[in-house]
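Milestone M4 deliverable, item 7.
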Amino acid sequence: MSEADAIEALEELGLRTYEARCFVALTQLSEGTAKEISQVADVPQSRVYDVVDQLHRLGLVDIQESDPRRYAVVSVDVARKRLRQEYRDHLETATTNLRELERRTTDDDGVWKVAGHQDLCNRTAAAVEDATSEIYLLAADADLLEPALLERLAAAHDRGVAVFVEVPSTSARGTVREAVPTARVSVTDFAFDSQGPADRSLGRLLLVDRETVVLSALTEGIVPRETAETGIWASERGHGLIVWFRYVLEERLATVEFETGDPVEPRDPNAECTACEE
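Output delivered:
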């Protein structure tokens, strides 16, 4: 790693530019005066004093009270531990403050638009990771069955979540079966080529614990032969969209034959899901 790479890495960890430069310079010098640090770090000597004092407060530099004052850097291993702890402290503080500020929408206007494929992947991942009882996924395009999603489905099944997946083809069924061997998988009978717009097709339908929905469509992207994904999500058990999809899910589970052959008992649409029990 070059000197510039080391400085950049330290900046990524939260040090300011002059702090990173002075720390790297001291690492090279082992110890030195403000003048020597200034020459190596390319930092004005008048700024070195304040910068190194801050590094001292972080526990990265020792100060020798002499004339002139000399500075010595701690070992790389010690610096790593202290930077890691500093990062963790900042992360914990930020998390605590954000939780205090966090507010969730609980009114009837609970449907949110999702702008792009990555946002939909993030929303899908969060819903699957939070699942406690049941996951139903209809993937109308096999390309949506990305490895990261399959890994999360497998992890959900391992913690006792029932996983139902409908896929567009037998090859896609094999992909899911390989990643999540005990999931209930079926080649869907949905008519994907129905009377919709020619430039738009079905994407994904995810219903988690019968209270969170992620729904998307695929469209032609800006680049030729590139597909874009847009959609919506909602997470409010009493919302009309959730109620409708809970009913649809009941019908699907009662009529679809999943590959495992395990019987799927239809449930009362008004029944409480275990994930919703307080």
